[in-house]
Amino acid sequence: MNNKKPLLIGLILLLVLLFLFLSKNMPKKEEKMATPEPASNSNLEPKTTSVKGNLFDILNLNKTMKCTFSADAEGTLVYGTSYVSGKNVRYVSEVKASGMEPVATNMLTDGEWVYTWSTEMQQGMKMKLDAFKETAATGDTKTENESPTSEQAKNFESNYDYNCMDWTGDPKMFELPQGLEFVDFSQTVESMMQPSSDGKSQMCAACSYAQNAEDKAACMKQFGC
Q1: pLDDT of the chain, 225 residues: tens digit per residue
Q2: Which of 26, 37, 117, 210 would bridge with 215, disulfide CB 3.0–4.6 Å?
Q3: In the chain, what are the domain boundaries?
Q4: Contact criterion met (CB below 8 Å) for 83 and 119
């Protein structure tokens, strides 16, 4: 009996130590087990895809992407960034020509209308997407002078080497600027084509849509404004 007593005491001490160890390392009832965080991918480079085509081709991919391109046309540098999400497209371009201030142009489409504005325009312009596509395909705006809308339409149709990557999407990128009036360019063209005594003043007013002062001056000179 005396031989079993030290063994029993040792067993009890072992059980107490085991209980203390387990109770110390087990989570309390009001606490939740910690969930391991997934490994961060912040150090991974975003996957880029090369796309050769125009903005309509990118739009038809039906993906949420951010695409960039650059081009050099006889010393005039063009940089463009397109944000695409579903039927929404935001196109931001910057043109740098020797001896001129850079001109930044924005174009946005919501699947029904195309809106365009730039740093050189006091008003924005809008056009139905179907009419805009026709303008892009033919380069015809039914006027003798290039307009910002027709130039942007050609940019939409122009083929470039785009570098595209996945984009999370930001609804703010597809919001129109506040405080800027958008004129329906389709109606402006139709009113200019209609014979009236006020036709000259309408054509002169259209010159204000030119992207820079030089184009505006040339337009006004042609119409004798």
Answers
A1: 555 444 444 544 444 444 444 344 444 444 433 333 434 444 556 678 888 887 778 877 888 999 999 888 778 888 999 999 988 999 998 888 888 888 888 999 988 999 989 877 788 889 888 877 776 665 544 444 444 444 555 555 677 888 999 998 899 999 999 889 998 877 655 555 555 545 566 667 667 666 567 777 877 777 777
A2: 210
A3: 48-184
A4: no
